[in-house]
Amino acid sequence: MRFHDLRHPHGTVLLRAGVHSKVVSERLGHADIASIAVPANQDSGKEAHMAHGDKSEATGGVLSDTTRVKPLQAEIAIDVVIPAFNEGSCIEGLLHDVMMARQHDWFQIQNIYVISDASTDQTDDVVQRVTNRDPRIKLFRKKERKGKQDSINLAFKVINVDVVIFIDADVRLASEHSIAKLLHHFRDGKTALVQGGLVRVYPGFTLHAAKLAAYFDWILVDNIRRRKAMSWWSIDGRVMALSRDFYRNLTLPLSLADDQFIFYTCIQQGRKFVWADDAIFYYGPPESVADFSHQWSRYSFYTKESRQYFGKDLIDRDMGVPGLWQTILSTFLRHPLYGLMWVLCYAVSRVESMLGVNFYKYERGFFWTKSSPLKK
């Protein structure tokens, strides 16, 4: 046996010991994380920082013509829905992750729907090409851009499964077990909504203000969630799983953020919400200060709308966070450079909110921002 041949057994031991895959990748000399074979029985904790049938005529879209795979009998039937707008540089990576996700005898992914919101880049072409590798993938092309909320409402009309998972097109799965860990919470028959454990990719050594601010934002939100699991800081629609008895009666208004509406409706109806912090999904930083500012300005706009729709008692009292400013200050003191960039970028967003920049877009549900493709 050559010395070189010992690298991969060594890597397997490290992964099973809970060492982050990025660290293992660098130790083995791999160019990216995807080249590491994750052991099937790996079940580490948070991997650290880093419908049925053709309804296109009724909805005005074009469903790709692919052969349906007869699903296996399973306890829970799953559909994955990926809303997308001009995500041609990102979406193939996510589709690959979902296709390679480890399935168990108790759940089965039946369909992987991509709902393209009248994308003008190569998104549709990329998805059509990938359908040749997995017939579960089905492209739904909207002829007119109507926003993410409309795409989710369209999915509700198409699907008829036990659980639907919505994943943003610029997200990546941390491992082949991410979806299984997300779905595990539905086995009790009581859970209505599960949110994935989102991890912002570490920006490395950089002076890019938006990347540093965004990473601080993730650290802060993670700290707040651990202080109070259910609050208005818990909301993030990048990865959400909904049970059928919850989603079948939902219709999202265009004037409210999809994640806020779904989360607050779940809480208001007294249903069970779970933050699955061990079901890790990676997401990247905004490309610019303007993108970071738009995200926070949009959040402020929709929070104001949610107060009017759901009432101040739910938003401010029940979903508020005691000791919020102390948490912000302590996080700032631990990460002063990141914190300084966050304060500056957040100040820009406050000015943007006061001036009402892009509010007309938010009212129509147009709020996608640019993200760079993640390399695993």
Give the ordered list of helices and strands.
HHHEEHEHEHEEHEHEHHEHHHHH
Overall radius of gyration: 21 Å
Text of the CATH class of the largest domain: Alpha Beta
Structural class given helices, strands, pairing? Answer: alpha/beta
Second rung of CATH, namely the architecture of the largest domain: Alpha-Beta Complex
Specify the CATH homologous superfamily of the largest domain.
Answer: Spore Coat Polysaccharide Biosynthesis Protein SpsA, Chain A
The number of distinct helices, counting runs of at least 4 residues, comes to 15
Stated plainly, the CATH topology of the largest domain is called: Spore Coat Polysaccharide Biosynthesis Protein SpsA, Chain A
Shape: globular
The major beta sheet can be summarized as: 9 strands, mixed
> How many domain units?
2
- The portion of residues forming beta strands comes to 15-25%
Low-confidence stretches: 1-5, 31-72
Mean pLDDT: 83
Measure the end-to-end span. Answer: 30 Å
The helix fraction, in percent, is 40-55%
**Strand segment tally:** 9
Assembly form of the protein: single chain
Report what the structure shows:
It is a single chain. The chain has helices at residues 7-16, 21-28, 56-59, 91-100, 123-131, 148-158, 178-183, 209-227, 244-247, 258-268, 289-310, 312-318, 324-334, 336-355, 359-363, and strands at 61-63, 76-84, 107-116, 137-142, 163-167, 172-173, 191-200, 239-243, 272-283. With 376 residues, it is α/β, with parallel strands linked by helices. The protein has two domains: 3-35; 56-363, Spore Coat Polysaccharide Biosynthesis Protein SpsA, Chain A, CATH 3.90.550.10. Strands 1-4-3-2-5-8-7-9-6 form a nine-stranded mixed β-sheet, sandwiched between helices. Helix 10 packs parallel to helix 11. It is globular and about 50 Å long. The relative contact order is 0.13. Residues 1-5 and 31-72 have low confidence and may be disordered.
